[in-house]
Hints:
149 residues, mainly beta, 4-stranded antiparallel sheet
Amino acid sequence: MKNFISYAIASILIGAxxxxxxxxxxxxxxxxxxxxxxxxxDYGEVKYDGDEYYTFILQNIxxxxxxxxxxxxxxxxxVPEWSKSPIxxxxxxxxxxxxxxxxxGAINKTVTVMSNAINTPTMVLRIKGNVLPMxxxxxxxxxxxxxxx
Length: 149
């Protein structure tokens, strides 16, 4: 019985000290953590051959520097750009994505972000929308070089 009481008191004290550490705001897990303001961007209707960029904003909500490793689009029509510098705790970063709007039709592409984040080391961002068809002009097309009559 004496051992049981000692064990119960020890358990209560350990639990109380763990609760106290959390209450004082001391981090339990060390490392960078990534979060995005938005994980899906809808371009909506996009003009053919338009200049379509979107910038995803991310933040390091961890307690160590966040490093973005590889960031890649799901095809050659989706090209991401990002800073290679570490993102300090509490700071924000950007991933700028350009979509090739010379491909009419539905947009449904992904950008995969790999980092040293302890919460989600691999994130998948999405872009969607629709590229309108190439506009047609009322002028006749002459590819031979001869004057059009």
